[in-house]
Design brief:
single chain, alpha/beta, Rossmann fold, 7-stranded parallel beta sheet, 7 strands, globular
Length: about 250
């Protein structure tokens, strides 16, 4: 695929200090976008991503913000707009994984995953509704687990299903401005987050579920995001797009 040009565009990527978010940020910057690297705690990792982008001539700005806090999300957008004068692209990537049977999930664990995975996307979409430029792009990172019935993924799958619906309705609400909004549903992607709480047998079993016989990698997802934020994808909106190597 010919790399689309995002020259002149400004992107916010939440949870961009590592994993899928970091790779998405790098891909957007390589295409010419100025990228806001959102992180919650790991400033060193965020700075590392910014350095990697600067090394090939790209422009990136690290911004600390807790997406589970509405005030912090408002600050994130305000800083991006103040620094770069606009926001064109929002990638809702930040999230946590809870790999635990429903019967064993504590109230605090449930509240935390709802606050980060669900409320965080809601707060970001609410800001994007007024701050995103016309013909902007939103991509929300969900998960293929919303299409499966995998034990120990109950709370996680519930939050991801919720943000898929939020994103689809958001697409309806902003469509008249030429803004598109879609969700990507990765299958198992080989990241630190994915491996959390899993045995080697768990990882191998999930890799073998894919028709392509492997785990996904962060580049697989970043390339799909890059397409969805390009002009070539202007007629795709309100969709939940599986990216799972044929698991389902």
């Amino acid at each position: 695929m010919t790399m689309p040009s995002l020259a002149g565009k400004v992107a916010i990527v939440t949870g961009a200090a590592r994993g899928i978010g970091a790779e998405i940020a790098i891909a957007l910057a390589k295409a010419g976008a100025k990228v806001v690297i959102n992180y919650k705690q790991n400033q060193a990792a965020a700075d590392h991503v910014c350095t990697a982008i600067a090394d090939f001539g790209g422009i990136a700005l690290p911004v600390q913000a807790d997406i589970s806090d509405a005030v912090e999300v408002r600050k994130l957008f305000a800083i991006a707009a103040s620094k770069f004068n606009r926001v064109d692209i929002l990638i809702n990537n930040a999230g946590i994984l809870l790999f635990k049977e429903i019967s064993n999930i504590t109230d605090d664990e449930f509240d935390r995953i709802v606050d980060i995975n669900f409320k965080g996307v809601f707060y970001a979409l609410r800001e994007a509704a007024t701050r995103l430029s016309d013909h902007g792009r939103v991509v929300t990172i969900s998960s293929t687990v919303t299409r499966l019935m995998l034990p120990k993924y109950g709370a996680y799958a519930a939050t991801k299903a919720a943000i898929e619906q939020l994103t689809r309705i958001f697409a309806r609400e902003v469509g008249e401005r030429g803004i598109t909004a879609n969700s990507i549903l990765p299958g198992p992607v080989d990241t630190e987050l994915f491996r959390t709480g899993k045995t080697v047998a768990d990882v191998e079993r999930m890799a073998n579920m894919a028709a392509l016989g492997r785990l996904g990698n962060v580049q697989d997802i970043a390339q799909i995001v890059l397409f969805l934020v390009s002009d070539e994808a202007c007629w795709i909106t309100g969709q939940n797009i599986g990216a799972n190597g044929g698991i389902i």
